[in-house]
Specification:
By secondary structure, the protein is mainly beta. It is built from no helices and 11 strands. The strands form 2 sheets. Strands 2, 4, 5, 6, 9, 10 and 11 form a 7-stranded mixed beta sheet that branches. It has a 4-stranded antiparallel beta sheet with strand order 1-3-8-7, with no helix packed on it.
């Protein structure tokens, strides 16, 4: 079973950029049909941010479209989330997750492997 470890979080000022990484170990994450990035802000429910299928189909939450880019490097077994033009409302714990089913969506219940999260804090 694959294990996921996120990194790259930190504190930045509004307008800045960060690149999150999600390294898979134990198995190739490419065996999972769908990989996603989620986030959870204090006092709020976890929400989907971006997702990508093994075929390369990508979807973003409306709140991050045009600012965030999801990508994957199968050779490095790593998923990325490039975050530009960051806003204070992007402050959250960010998680990557893998789903082995045939449907790729932002429904959390479809994801059976989760990383431990990396904190992103954006100050105004």
């Amino acid at each position: 079973q694959v294990q996921l470890v996120e990194s790259g979080g930190g504190s930045v000022q509004a307008g800045g950029s960060l690149r999150l990484s999600c390294a898979a170990s134990g198995a190739s994450y490419s065996t999972y049909y769908c990989m996603g990035w989620f986030r959870q802000a204090p006092g709020k429910e976890r929400e989907g941010v971006a997702r990508i299928t093994s075929y390369g189909t990508i979807r973003y939450a409306n709140s991050v479209k045009g600012r965030f880019t999801i990508s994957q490097d199968n050779a490095r077994n790593t998923l990325y989330l490039q975050m530009n033009s960051l806003k204070p409302e992007d402050t959250a714990m960010y998680y990557c997750a893998a789903a082995s089913g045939e449907i790729c969506s932002f429904e959390e219940t479809r994801y059976n492997i989760w990383g431990q999260g990396t904190q992103v804090t954006v100050s105004s």
